[in-house]
Design goal:
With about 220 residues, the chain is an alpha/beta fold. It folds into two domains: about 60 residues; about 100 residues, Protein of unknown function (DUF3299) (OB fold (Dihydrolipoamide Acetyltransferase, E2P)). The protein is about 30% helix and about 30% strand. It has four helices and six strands. Strands 2-3-4-6-5 form a five-stranded mixed beta barrel. Helix 2 packs across helix 4. The radius of gyration is 24 Å and the shape is elongated.
Length: about 220
């Protein structure tokens, strides 16, 4: 019998312990964001009124380019008026707009950047469970978000502050934005999912996927 037990122990060491024997790494939301040097607005030395006008014009052009506004919208007309004002005052505004656009592009790039060494780790992370269909209760897939109202009543968090969760077994949500702890295997993986709510839907991007094996209620605020 003693010899048989030794054989079993040897086999366990040979094949490795199962995933549930790992100790999960406890994460906070900051742990999902790479540590980078703080960005500085390239227009910080520009006169405040001019800076606000340049930033507003850059935003208007972005909204028009992405189809959020058309040429008949009030914002588009404001953009035309700003351009006319700059030209009338001999302000070389296009280089300033270009510098600010590059700044926004870098912000967008950083919002999608990930912490690569988390890939494949067993982790435990708190957050709020947001169903992809807000009327659903038995969930096999949902988003884990850092705040109540995220994606519906407030601006959508950046992709690296969103986790797409796929459960081994359905999780029965008690309400929208259930506060929970999720334990599972995390993957660095880009997803785009539609969140469906009462008056429409929106596409939401996430930079991480969590293969969830355990859900626990979070009983204290975070």
């Amino acid at each position: 019998m003693k010899f048989f037990n030794i054989i079993i122990i040897a086999c366990l060491f040979a094949i490795g312990f199962p995933a549930f024997a790992d100790t999960p790494k406890v994460l906070g939301w900051r742990d999902l964001v790479p540590q980078l040097e703080a960005l500085k607005n390239p227009l910080r030395e520009v006169d405040t009124k001019l800076r606000f006008d340049i930033e507003y014009l850059a935003s208007i052009r972005y909204w028009a380019k992405t189809g959020q506004i058309s040429k008949v919208d009030t914002e588009f007309e404001h953009g035309v008026e700003l351009e006319h004002k700059f030209k009338s005052n001999n302000i070389d505004f296009e280089p300033l707009v270009a510098r600010y656009n590059s700044f926004l592009d870098e912000i967008e790039r950083r919002n999608k950047s990930v912490v690569g060494n988390l890939d494949g780790r067993l982790v435990r992370i708190p957050g709020y469970a947001l169903p992809l269909e807000t009327s659903a209760t038995a969930l096999t897939e949902f988003l884990l978000v850092p705040s109540i109202g995220a994606c519906i009543h407030t601006p959508v968090p950046p992709p690296n502050q969103m986790v797409f969760v796929k459960m081994d077994q359905p999780y029965r949500a008690k309400r929208l934005y259930d506060p929970v702890w999720i334990t599972g295997r995390i993957r660095v993986e880009h997803n785009k999912k539609a969140v469906v709510y009462s008056d429409g839907q929106s596409g939401v991007e996430s930079s991480y996927t969590l293969m969830g094996v355990k859900v626990e209620p979070y009983k204290t605020p975070f």
